[in-house]
């Protein structure tokens, strides 16, 4: 590996990483900031000065100032480094899925001996990188601090959407409660990439019942940032909009398709071969499990199919895939029994889909379970005292188990996920069984 990195190193010019010089893009990427601005915030049109926009600018300046000048102990060499090296490659004119050249660039800035150098792969769509390209302007430590701040804001925005309609005092309490959920702390610490998905689903919980087209599109786009978590959610949103047969559904569906085409198009400047390279990168994801089918090699995974394969079968990844398929069929059958209630209530539909994803996905880590905050928050609405106590236990137990037992406490996440699946089913079963198409015949 050291020789391969050294050969690639000879082909890549050593970058100048000073903040001011990095403001100068290569000729190929000079216009990317304009595209990224419009793709990241495609619905905001600032037509006049107002205090909200002024406060956003002040907040951004403060965040950058803290990242540049305040020393922190936030680690920059863990999960975040995969995103950082992709952003660094982008602002230096390297195509974001050209792994050998990115490795050479990362090796130059890492100051790590070649025999000990490792670069995490960034396994997510090019529009994710486009939305964070500015991190490549900073040093790695400063970028890690800024990313921490961004994730914190995404978390608080998620809580804001999820607690819409809550009493003011309870809503205020929800912010620190969301922050101290241990998977959240872990995700913030290592600079994980799941917070956009958390915000996307939270936005959808607000946007679909309120028939807000712009937020529906934004939430759908954000869920695609981690495809293995968001794929089923996107399909559920599209299905919900199609079945609704409403004016809102038609407008939102058209907008999602148009924005999807736009995201595909603007990804080509980031990597002109991304339609080939990115799927190839995903097909190589099995390297995270080792060079065999032994699921036990995925020692950090926290998901039900691989756990069942380890406990009761031969521990192979192929058996885990069969278990995932069996669980998917079982969950589809279960939620099919309450399909009319799910199609009438977008919150229930999205939560059922989210829980299904967390149960069947063979590639999950404990930080991905920050998404459990969504069904817990939604189910707390209009619940009996008994169910509120159950939900409180579901919130507390993973934090206590992980804090006490470490990764051995991942089993608590799996148990809580199954409990929430049952509670979502019971909530849907309790709904009045009115045909969904009748309920949607509003033409508004």
Q: Give unreliable regions as ranges.
A: 4-49, 287-297, 436-444
* Structure annotation, total helices: 22
* Backbone structural class: mainly alpha
Average pLDDT, rounded to a whole number, is 80
From the spread of the alpha carbons, the general shape counts as globular
Radius of gyration: 22 Å
Helix content: 55-70%
Mind describing the biggest β-sheet? none
Q: Can you tell me the number of structural domains?
A: 2
Termini, distance in Å?
60 Å
| Count of β-strands | 0
Order of helices and strands: HHHHHHHHHHHHHHHHHHHHHH
Strand content: under 5%
Question: What does this protein structure show overall?
Answer:
- 64% of the residues lie in helices and 0% in strands.
- It is globular and about 60 Å long.
- Helix 11 packs antiparallel against helix 12 (227-244).
- It has helices at 2-9, 32-40, 51-69, 80-91, 99-110, 126-131, 140-162, 168-179, 182-190, 195-207, 213-223, 227-244, 247-266, 274-283, 304-312, 317-336, 339-344, 346-360, 373-379, 385-405, 410-430, 436-439.
- It folds into 2 domains: 2-196, no CATH class; 198-437, no CATH class.
- The protein is mainly alpha-helical and 444 residues long.
Task: Provide a short characterization of the protein structure.
By secondary structure, the protein is mainly alpha-helical. It is about 65% helix and about 0% strand. Residues about 5-50, about 285-295 and about 435-444 have low confidence and may be disordered.
């Amino acid at each position: 590996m050291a020789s391969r990195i050294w050969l690639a190193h000879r082909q890549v010019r050593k970058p100048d990483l000073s903040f001011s010089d990095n403001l100068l893009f290569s000729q190929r990427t000079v216009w990317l900031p304009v595209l990224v601005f419009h793709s990241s915030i495609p619905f905001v049109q600032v037509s006049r000065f107002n205090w909200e926009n002024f406060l956003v600018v002040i907040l951004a300046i403060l965040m950058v100032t803290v990242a540049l000048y305040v020393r922190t102990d936030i680690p920059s060499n863990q999960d975040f480094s995969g995103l950082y090296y992709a952003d660094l490659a982008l602002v230096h004119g390297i195509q974001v899925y050209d792994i050998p050249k990115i490795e050479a660039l990362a090796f130059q800035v890492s100051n790590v001996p070649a025999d000990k150098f490792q670069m995490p792969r960034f396994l997510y769509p090019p529009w994710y990188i486009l939305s964070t390209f500015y991190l490549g302007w900073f040093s790695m430590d400063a970028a890690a601090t800024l990313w921490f701040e961004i994730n914190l804001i995404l978390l608080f925005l998620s809580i804001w959407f999820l607690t819409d309609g809550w009493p003011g005092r309870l809503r205020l309490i929800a912010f620190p409660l969301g922050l101290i959920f241990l998977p959240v702390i872990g995700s913030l610490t290592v600079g994980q990439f799941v917070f956009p998905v958390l915000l996307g689903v939270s936005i959808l919980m607000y946007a679909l019942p309120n028939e807000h087209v712009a937020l529906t599109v934004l939430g759908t786009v954000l869920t695609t940032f981690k495809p293995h978590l968001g794929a089923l959610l996107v399909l559920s949103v599209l299905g919900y909009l199609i079945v609704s047969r409403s004016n809102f559904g038609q407008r939102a569906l058209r907008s999602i398709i148009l924005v999807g085409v736009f995201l595909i198009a603007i990804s080509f400047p980031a990597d002109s071969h991304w339609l080939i390279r990115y799927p190839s990168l995903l097909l190589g994801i099995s390297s995270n499990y080792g060079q065999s089918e032994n699921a036990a090699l995925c020692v950090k995974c926290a998901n039900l199919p691989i756990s069942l394969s380890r406990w009761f079968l031969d521990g192979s990844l192929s058996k885990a895939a069969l278990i995932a398929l069996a669980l998917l069929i079982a969950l589809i059958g279960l939620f099919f029994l309450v399909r009319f209630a799910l199609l009438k209530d977008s919150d229930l539909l999205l939560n059922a889909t989210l829980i299904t994803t967390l149960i069947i996905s063979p590639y999950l880590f404990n930080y991905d379970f920050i998404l459990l905050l969504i069904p817990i928050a939604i189910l707390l609405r209009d619940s009996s005292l008994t169910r509120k106590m159950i939900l409180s236990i579901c919130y507390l137990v993973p934090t206590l188990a992980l804090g006490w037992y470490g990764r051995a406490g991942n089993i608590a996440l799996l148990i809580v996920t199954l409990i929430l699946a049952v509670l979502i089913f019971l909530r849907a079963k309790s709904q009045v069984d009115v045909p969904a198409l009748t309920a949607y015949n509003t033409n508004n």
